[in-house]
Amino acid sequence: MINYKENFKNSLTSSTKITPVAPITTIVLMEYMEKTGAKFPEAHTDADNMMELAAAPYNYSGIEGINIPFDMTIESEAIGCKVDLRSDDQRPEVIETPFNNPDDISIPDDFLYNGRMPVLFDAIEKIQEKYQEVPLIVGVVGPFTLLGQLLGIEELLKLVVTDYFEIEEAISIVTDALLDFTSKIDSYSVDAICVCEPSSSSDLLNPDIFKRLVTPELELLSDNIQSGSILHICGDTTPIIPDMLRVGYDAISIENAVDLDYVMNKRAELNSNTKICGNISTNKALLLGSMDDVINESVNALEKGVDILCSSCSVPPHSPEENVHAMITARDEYISK
Q: Is the pTM of this model over 0.85?
């Protein structure tokens, strides 16, 4: 019997003979909603529903961890943005922001008590009480992505070019808020905090600007996170893999667009201890593929030395549950050889 918590911790800090299959990003399936009765949008606003839906990958598919929250708007909502929670297979999104320019941005003194923050903290406590043996991973929006929600990502990408120093000041303010947020999460002794920075993807942001503007903020966060720390950036992050490996996180999470061989070679070249999570295709394999497709991708990742086996990003809600479980099947078959 695997001690899931110990195995997960070892995978981040040292080594383990059994590669964890963990939800580094969220796994919320329509099948889970049907089985648990916990659905969107109630699971965003009620701690019991959040717990039931978050634990479904563990309870029904054998995934070795629990990940909350299910969306990336809790921080922006607490800062003052208006959020549409939406329903069914749709995630919440920011629909209105009180900020017109970088100079407007300020963080409310009661930031950690606003919006759905109390729901998240309540859910953390409930999960830890009921699932003491299961690793808990809490997702936090990265500073550049959060700033993009506050200003609008298209506007932010323009301002980075035209008003760089104003953006530099604004992202520092946002990072300070995230330091308070991650410190609060740390106080619950969770197993890992995953900083999600989709807007920093090389598909959107110039790698040189990422290095100059974003990496200092990410490093500040990693330096202050007391739990296990994971950095997830979406898309083809090949140009910024060296920077991701240098900013001090216990692990980085990469998509299937990134060549695992390249990442492993770059890690060795930099003499980095950073662990690698990923990188099973969310669309080609988990959503549209067969169980064999998932197993083949999983075995390939394991053979290349991935430290935590997981989806390359959040799993699409209409993915078959059997495909999620196929990652466990692949890992078990691999280690039994």
A: yes
